[in-house]
Amino acid sequence: MATAPFSQVRQNYHPQCEAAINSQINLELYASYVYLHSWGCLWRKQREWDWGGIKIKGC
After folding, report:
1. Which has the closest alpha carbon to 22: 51, 30, 6, 53?
2. Which pLDDT belongs to residue 40?
3. HSE of 18, CA atoms in CB hemisphere, 13 A
4. What global pTM score does this model have?
5. What CA–CA distance (Å, rounded) separates 23 from 58?
6. pLDDT in tens, 22-35
7. Which pLDDT value is given to residue 58?
8. How confident is the model at residue 11 (pLDDT cuts 50, 70, 90)?
9. Which residues contact 13 (CB under 8 A, 6 or more apart)?
C-alpha cells in the first residue's frame, strides 16, 4: 500500500486551529523529552550510587 504525499493528506484547518494543534503537539513532545531525560538522570544517579561514585556527564 503506497502512502500519499504530504500535500495530499493535509486537511484545510483554520490557521489558528492548526497553530493551536501544533503548539499542543510541541508542548507534549517537549514534556516527553523532559520526562525521559529526568528518568535517565535518576537512573544514572542510582547506578552511580551502586557503582561507588562513578560520575556521568550531562545530568
Report:
1. 30
2. 77
3. 6
4. 0.54
5. 28
6. 999 999 999 998 88
7. 56
8. confident
9. 21
What the block records as the C-alpha cell of 52 is 561507588
- For the record, the C-alpha cell of 16 comes out as 489558528
The three cell numbers locating residue 2: 503506497
User: Does the annotation list 28 as a binding residue?
Assistant: yes
Q: Which three cell numbers stand for residue 37?
A: 531525560
DSSP codes, 1-59 = -PPPPHHHH-----HHHHHHHHHHHHHHHHHHHHHHHHHHHHHHHHHHHHTTS---TT-
Mean per-residue pLDDT over the chain, rounded? 76
